[in-house]
Amino acid sequence: NIFRVLGDFSHLASIFILLHKIQQLKSCSGISFKSQVLYMLVYITRYLDLPWTSSPYNFIFKVLFISSELYIIYLMARAYKPTNDPNLDTFHVEFLLGFAGLLALLFPYKYTILEVFWAFSIWLESVAILPQLFMLQRTGEAEAMTAHYIAALGMYRALYIPNWIYRYFSEPTHKVDTIAVTAGILQTILYSDFFWIYYTKVMRGEKFKLP
Amino acid sequence: DKRLEIKDEL
C-alpha cells in the first residue's frame, strides 16, 4: 500500500540525504557514529533471512540498507574520521542494547534464533536514534541536511503506522504484529519533539536550533 | 502463519 511504499522510500531517501551531506560538506560533524553502528546492528539482526527473501522488492531494499550503512560507517570511521567528534557522542548505548535484548528474550513470537534476533532488531531500531538526538541536544543546533536526514528517517516508521492500520482492515486475517506496532509507535513518539522543531523552524526556512 | 507476515515488511 501507499503508506508502506512511501515509508520505505523515505527510509531510502534519508540514507541518500546523509551520504549527500557527508560528501558535499566533506564532514560527518553532527552525525552520531553510535546511532549509525546501532542501525548496522539493526539491519544485520533483522535481515538474517536475506538469502531466503522471496520478494525482489524486499531483497533490493535489504541489500541497499545493509550496503549503504556499511559505506556510511566506512566514511565516518576512515575517510572523514577527523570530522567525527566522539566527545559529543556520549550516549550510553549499553542501555539501549540491554533494553532491546531484554524485550527480545522475554517476548519473542517464537524461541528461534531468527525470531529472537528479529524482535531484538525491532526494539533496537525503536531507540537507535537516541544517541543522535542526544548529540543534537548537546550541540543545540543542526545543519539543514542533518535535520532533513533525521526527519526522513523518522517519517519512515511514522508512515508504517497508517500502513499497519490499512493492512488490518484490508487483509482478511486482521492480524496485528504487536511487537512491530508497539515499537513503531514508541519510535515515532521519540521523534515527536524533533518533528515539532523541524516543522516550526526548518520547514519555514529557519535554522534547526533548539529553544 | 505469523512468521511470514513479519518477514514481509522491512
Descriptive report:
The complex is a heterodimer of chains A (211) and B (10). Chain A is built from eight helices and two strands. Chain A has 211 residues and is mainly alpha-helical. A two-stranded antiparallel ribbon of chain A has the order 1-2. With 10 residues, chain B is mainly α. Helices cover 60% and strands 0% of the residues of chain B. Chain B contains one helix and no strands. The N and C termini of chain B lie far apart (17 Å). Residues 1-5 of chain B have low confidence and may be disordered. The chains are: A mainly alpha (211), B mainly alpha (10).
Shape of chain A: globular
Which residues of chain B form runs of ≥5 with pLDDT under 50?
Answer: 1-5
Decide which structural class fits the backbone of chain B: mainly alpha
Indicate the structural class of chain A: mainly alpha
Radius of gyration of chain A: 17 Å
Helical content class of chain A: over 70%
- Radius of gyration of chain B, whole Å: 6 Å
Strand content of chain B: under 5%
Instruction: Find the count of extended strands of chain A (DSSP E, 2+ residues).
Output: 2
